[in-house]
Specification:
This protein has 285 residues and is mostly helical. Helices cover 77% and strands 0% of the residues.
Length: 285
């Protein structure tokens, strides 16, 4: 199989419909085996779309770490991070339509029904870009909400500020956990955006351990690289190079494929059995 397959041609697989797996694990193994090298073109598209927001986020992270190392006070840290939070809002908002389009592509890919992924991507973006912008704008506001909670409550409440700040952080974490399911629902089901938000949050809360486990799995490369920040030196440079290569070639698309597996499982086990004509769910094994 070529490393960069033609994205404008349907994928042809060497098995008949009778050979399709009957369990989710079998389907996941088949998709990862047969479609893994379909991910780099999709990943390059995601990397290009997310590059401004990611570069700004990483730059701000290191800048804040440097400011903390200079023994600056809490108010100085809040002042420095204000500009970073405000600029991140439009950068993060612009990623919404691409996230919606990629949710449609990886949804089909996770079901081994991938046909003309760029056509699927373009169709999904055209159909849901307005609502996707609303979701990405809401996501980009959470750093501002967390910043506002820190700036307002910490000086006035002291240690008691842990309660409102913790609640804000918990709400932001729940939103991030539900976001992949929400994008997949946006391109899979009809209904109002408010209904999709409530349903995605309810599904995430009901299956919180599984959803959180998948999120941790997608963050594993970054978590593995964290000790390099304390070791420093050449080890840090090598680890950053490995991370850059991984996320440039596979990381973003592979994470979304894992999220698509999870979203499809939630839909098939919770939503589709309640819909007339919904697809039959695969077995758990």
């Amino acid at each position: 199989m070529p490393f960069f397959p033609n994205p404008f041609q349907p994928a042809r697989r060497p098995y008949s419909p009778e050979d399709r797996p009957t369990t989710r694990r079998g389907l996941a193994r088949l998709v990862l085996r047969d479609h893994f090298f379909d991910l780099p073109p999709l990943n390059l598209l995601l990397a290009a779309v997310y590059a401004p927001a990611l570069l700004w986020a990483v730059t701000g992270f290191f800048y804040i770490l440097e400011a903390m190392g200079d023994d600056g006070g809490f108010q100085d840290l809040i002042s420095l991070s204000k500009t970073w939070v405000l600029v991140f809002i439009p950068l993060g908002t612009l990623t919404g339509p691409a996230a919606g389009g990629m949710a449609a592509v990886t949804r089909d890919l996770a079901r081994d029904r991938s046909r003309l992924p760029w056509f699927t991507f373009r169709t999904a973006v055209r159909s849901c870009w307005k609502r996707a912008l609303v979701l990405s704008a809401a996501t980009s506001l959470f750093p501002l909400l967390l910043w506002a909670a820190l700036a307002f409550y910490v000086p006035s409440l002291g240690r008691l500020a842990a309660v409102p700040v913790g609640l804000t952080a918990a709400l932001a974490l729940l939103w991030l956990l539900a976001l992949p399911t929400l994008y997949a629902m946006l391109v899979s089901y009809q209904g109002s955006l408010g209904t999709h938000v409530k349903t995605a949050l309810a599904l995430t809360l009901r299956h919180l351990p599984a959803v959180a486990g998948v999120r941790l799995l997608t963050c594993l490369p970054v978590l593995t690289a964290l000790p390099a920040f304390w070791i420093g030196g050449r080890f840090l440079s090598a680890m950053l190079l490995v991370l850059c290569v991984y996320y440039l070639l596979f990381g973003f698309a592979l994470s979304r494929l894992l999220w698509a597996f999870t979203a499809n499982w939630l839909f098939e086990s919770e939503l589709d059995p309640c819909l007339q004509g919904g697809p039959a769910a695969l077995e758990e094994g």
